[in-house]
Write a structure and sequence with these properties.
Elements lengths: L1 H9 L36 H4 L10 E8 L2 E8 L5 E8 L9 E7 L5 E8 L6 H6 L1 E7 L5 E8 L13 E8 L5 E8 L4 E8 L3 E7 L2 E6 L2 E5 L5 E5 L4 E7 L5 E7 L6 E8 L2 E7 L5 E5 L5 E5 L13 E4 L6 E2 L5 E8 L14 E9 L5 E8 L7 E2 L34 E2 L3 H11 L8 E3 L2 E4 L1 H4 L11 H12 L13 E2 L3 E3 L19 E4 L17 H9 L1 H21 L3 E2 L11 H9 L1 E2 L7 E2 L33 H10 L60 E2 L42 E6 L20 E7 L8 H4 L4 E3 L7 E7 L4 H4 L1 E7 L4 E9 L7 E7 L11 E7 L8 E10 L4 E5 L6 E8 L2 E5 L17
Parallel strand pairs: 7-26, 20-21, 33-36
Antiparallel strand pairs: 1-2, 2-3, 4-5, 5-6, 6-7, 8-9, 9-10, 11-12, 12-13, 13-14, 15-16, 16-17, 17-18, 19-20, 22-23, 23-24, 24-25, 27-30, 28-29, 31-32, 34-35, 37-48, 38-41, 39-40, 40-47, 41-46, 42-45, 42-48, 43-44, 43-46
Helix pairs in contact: 4-8, 6-10, 7-8, 8-9, 9-10
Protein name: Transglycosylase SLT domain-containing protein
Keywords: Signal
Length: about 950
Amino acid sequence: MLATRLRALMSTLVLGATVAVAPQAVSAAAPVAPVPDMGSQASIADPATVLGPGWRRSSDLLVAGAGDTNGFHVYLAREKDAFAWSTLATLNDGQNGVGSWTGYVCLTGSGRYAAVVYAPVIATNKPARMLAGAYAAVVDVRTGKARQVVRGVQLAYFNPACGPGDRVLLTRAIGRDHEETDLLTVDAAAARVTEVRRIKAQFTTPAPAADGDYGVVRGELVRVGKGGRLTRLATPGGQPYAVRATADGAVDLLTVKPGGEAEQSAAYRYRAGRLTHVGTSPGKQLELLGLSGGRNALIGEIDGLTKGSAKDLVLLRSSRPARAVSREGHLVVHGMRAERQDARTSKRVRGDGELRVTVQASRAGAVRSGLVRTERRTAADVTVLAGPVPAGMAALAVPPDPGQPRCAIPRNNVYYQVFQPSANQVEWAVDLAVNNLLRVDRTIPGIPTYKPQVMFSLPAGSPLVPAQLMLAILAQETNLAQASWHAVPGDAGNPLVSDYYGSRPHGENIKIIDYGEADCGYGISQVTDGMASGQTSYSSEQQEVIAVDYMANIAAGLKILVQKWQEVQATGSQVNNGDPRYIENWFLAVWGYNSGIYQNTGGPYGVGWFNNPANPDYPANRTPFLRASLDDASHPADWSYPEKIMGWAETPQWQWIPPLTKYAEPNFGVGSGDVLQLPGRFQFCGSVNYCTPNASNPCPSWNSNCWWHGTTSWGDGCAAKCATGKLAHSLNAPEPPVIYVYSPSCAPFQADIGTVAAVIDNLNNESGVNRLGCAPQPRGGKFTLRTGSPFGSTAGLYGQVDLHQLGAGYLGHTWFTHSYDEADAQHHRVLGTWTTDLPSDDYEIIVHLPSHGANEQVKYVISQGDGGAGGSDHQIVCEIDQNVTAYDDKWVSLGWTWLYPGAKVQLDNIVDGADGTVDVAYDAIAFVNVPGYANGRSCGSPYPMS
């Protein structure tokens, strides 16, 4: 059954922009028929038939956005080019190694500017970042010039908001339960914030218009005046989820009318003080998007809709949910899926990615699918916000002295190399852990032997956690990664830390280190509390193993989850029959795992409003996460955290190496249709939290009064239909072997001609610290890394941010960073120096290139040492392409020359025009004594291992 579902999901051909993508179901229906492929860059291969005879003369254009591990990309497609896609801009604030990016795009009324709100996908796991931790930019559609406008805005499906003009609205949620809202007005042409208004309520779905600004507060359509004052205009039937103004003074809006399983979208138009019902869709897959000339389009299931007096309203039928539409409505985007989204050092040339898009031509109704090569725009094309933020924007002061690291376990420390497990190992560990049997002896270098679930024992009376629930949490939090995003299974890498340098509150700016703002979430389950220096809830030994050992981290994370279950019980709350065997019954515990549980102290208590499915920060017409298409994972901010976890439990995450899925699906209940039984949007609404089910205004308090506690049930109450965990491994099975992405090698260097005089590795410790267990080898010199320019300056600290270690390369360890232009050298230069202690003689110099983490054209500078030509330290430059390994370790000659004592080889990462996205590796260098012999090899020649 799983294989059938996966084929159905893959055929939807839509984007999942997490670090590793999961296949998702099209519901429990039969597989969808494949759609025809498109031409180059997803162009329409038969435009005359599909688009019509006038396509070459059309001015229609499409702007859409999608994220991968390089950043959030804004794409442009013009009908006159058969809608071939090109990359307009790439936005990532200079960040590397934060996983995939997500975001939302809208096009201003003139069609000249695209407004973008974007953030790393991991931000969707942090309530504070969802509420006010995203970034906003404006992209000029004609030039591709991108200018950052502001940091610290809301990551929500309605943000940014465009209208008939070039004025854009942004929101920032204030308070942990979004009690208030900052409404930011942006002049897109100037790319600056012109006004900030504080609204004393939860404000959603903003809509700029010529006569003012509109939106929804407490389920009502309102106009926003000066100072954030609100004027109530109308109360539509159902919960609003879309609002857009037109050029002629009307406001269109969509709501979801209550109906249980048969919910429907209703369309309304407000004009001159009157709200008119346009019609009701047969389902709830109806979207409201903007067209040229200040017109609006209703796209999706349009049966039952009539324009009536709304003559300018365009109705477009779409067979699937619409993500974007062209300005004239000629092309509708169904989905966009990044073909490779692995944040790790993957088998890609220079990091360019591919995007698979699925579109529907409105004229012929034809659905097409094709690939787009994403060409990243250089850093010079993107202006990042600098200087003070305008008044009212909550600017953060940047400390001149970052101080000492807050997080307990450091990065770039060779004694903290973290093994990256493969998914089969994670699944095995979870299977044992949920049965309290993860008690195998663990031996980590420098740490006494321990047993994970002895060190992190479960609380007394712990329930049995379904394995798929814990795996779903690990999938959502880190995509089952214990080490840095850069490390693939079988590698070692730096510890995976949520925000080690505290740069996130400053817009992910890697030129800012603010340790006081660091987020010390470590490893596969992102254990945070107790992981800062000086915190005592964990011992120093426990902090170490949480950071470096996936088994220990899983044990610690599982303990936290069980504690949340028990905290829910302590509030007197329960869902369905309360049996912990059923995945669905953990909904409240998962809710609390993410945003906390408030105990009874005499006032409101329970779980907070942020993750309540009734919260209008999530679109009312959404379907269960991952059940409809792969596209869901590209915009995870549309769902609450517990909804996302239920989605990952229902549909296993997918991977690019066999087997197809990272973990087993659960045991679905009898008569369930092989899906989880999920609560309705208003399941957690009632008198206890002043929340009225099925109302347009479910929770008018918008504060702690909306906290929920109590008992509730849905479906059959888990009498038969709920899902239970499934074990994929025997409980007495040993740890399975890792499934390598790259074959490891511990082979020492051997010369084909001459005598090996020295091999200088990128480690100076003779013990050969590495997680592959490679035996140490004599070195005969030393290696140093220095960061920043000039070296020794404060700026050198910032070079550490984009410096990484990998358990790859010669004897299982290499360093890598990314190439930068000379203009960025102050903060980003990384200089590696291999210094010999060899006597004067002829030597061939051979550099080792790792199978991954090396892609750039770089210059090795050989200094011959004192006593060289003319008494000077003569230098020889050898330029080679590190991207010649074909995914296997390689040795490459730098040439043959005479060296004197003190000779050295140096390499840095400064490359003309580089944009911080291409890998530069610092691995071993061998010196082979070949007196008086020129072997014919020169700079760049491959070196054969004997």
